[in-house]
Write a structure and sequence with these properties.
- The complex is a heterodimer of chains A (249) and B (61).
- Chain A has 249 residues and is mostly helical.
- Chain A has helices at residues 13-45, 59-86, 89-121, 129-150, 154-168, 171-181, 201-233, 238-245.
- Chain A has one domain (23-45, 56-188, 196-245).
- The radius of gyration of chain A is 20 Å and the shape is globular.
- With 61 residues, chain B is mainly α.
- Chain B is built from 2 helices and no strands.
- The chains are: A mainly alpha (249), B mainly alpha (61).
- The interface between A and B is large, with 41 and 31 residues.
């Protein structure tokens, strides 16, 4: 029983800490490689869009950043649910480690969206469903970080933050389906699971490679952050003392 | 294979240069600065925890 490889072993911070450290360089390298390939395809090879000229190239960061902003929130809500249900130590740390990157992705989605909206719609911003719900997502990230930072006891901070994450998760389908449910300036989904994509193959691949780049980047940064949080929170345990006496790896 | 005829054409982005490079510039900046901040935060935390550990050892010894 104990000899068997057990994935739950890595739920213990002492076991997850070195594993996460070993994974960081691989995710970072993958982010760079996917990023270079995506930029090459998207910025150098992909043809001009027949409607939007060269301005459409903002899509290669706008869509990946928007996807990540929603996906990171879902992952945080998942960890919040696990943490509230099973009272696991690692879940709250995971959610906290992801939050700043998620907030930056939401900001980038809004920023690149504004720079795309100005030339195409003639305005930086409209209070329409897609844009407003994405702005609320940014506020949810900021609210979560502020709430967790305001509570001194980390376990109670995790619980309060977890509740906020679970309540706020209702916003994610609203963002995703807003372009279907309401009349909006924002164009419909660029890629859909049910229809074949309406874009040139090089455009599509450029966008997917950039999405993979953002994905790998987010994992790498969150893993570094979660390792720091682990040391901080578990500083009175033997494994952290031993780690600090060693080289910190 | 390469879509552009010249570097200046690439920079101009068909008249959308400000918007395209404004998007890519800020994204590149954020994706470059965030890992630096995260790494510095990690080094600072490790240094502080090591100091605390040493101080603690001095008291108990």
């Amino acid at each position: 029983m104990t000899d068997r490889f057990n994935i739950y072993r890595y739920a213990a911070p002492s076991a997850f800490y070195p594993l996460a450290g070993a994974m960081v360089p691989w995710f970072a390298a993958a982010a760079v490689l996917f990023g270079l390939a995506g930029l090459w395809l998207g910025m150098l090879v992909a043809p001009t869009d027949f409607q939007q000229g060269e301005g459409y190239r903002i899509i290669f960061i706008h869509v990946p950043a928007s996807w990540m902003s929603m996906f990171i929130y879902l992952v945080m809500a998942f960890w919040a649910a696990i943490g509230l249900a099973f009272n696991t130590r690692l879940s709250g740390m995971m959610a906290q480690a992801l939050a700043p990157t998620g907030a930056l992705m939401a900001f980038l989605s809004l920023w690149t969206g504004a720079l795309w909206g100005k030339p195409m719609w003639g305005t930086w911003w409209v209070w329409d469903a897609r844009l407003t719900s994405e702005l609320i997502l940014l506020f949810l990230y900021i609210g979560y970080m502020a709430l967790v930072a305001a509570i001194d006891d980390p376990r109670r901070a995790d619980k309060a933050g977890g509740l906020l994450l679970l309540v706020g998760v209702v916003n994610i389908p609203i963002i995703y389906f807003s372009v279907k449910w309401w009349n909006t300036l924002h164009q419909g989904a660029s890629v859909s699971l049910t229809k074949s994509p309406s874009m040139a193959a090089t455009m599509l691949w450029g966008m997917l490679l950039m999405a993979l780049c953002f994905w790998m980047y987010s994992i790498a940064v969150a893993l570094i952050r979660v390792r720091t949080i682990m040391l901080e929170r578990e500083r009175n345990t033997d494994w952290v003392r031993e780690t600090l006496e060693g080289d910190g790896k | 294979m390469i879509h552009w005829n010249s570097f200046s054409e690439f920079l101009a982005m068909g008249g959308y240069g400000l918007y395209v490079w404004g998007s890519f510039g800020v994204t590149a900046l954020i994706l470059a600065v965030e890992p630096i901040v995260v790494a510095r935060n990690r080094n600072n935390t490790i240094a502080r925890l090591k100091r605390q550990l040493r101080a603690e050892r001095r008291i108990t010894e």
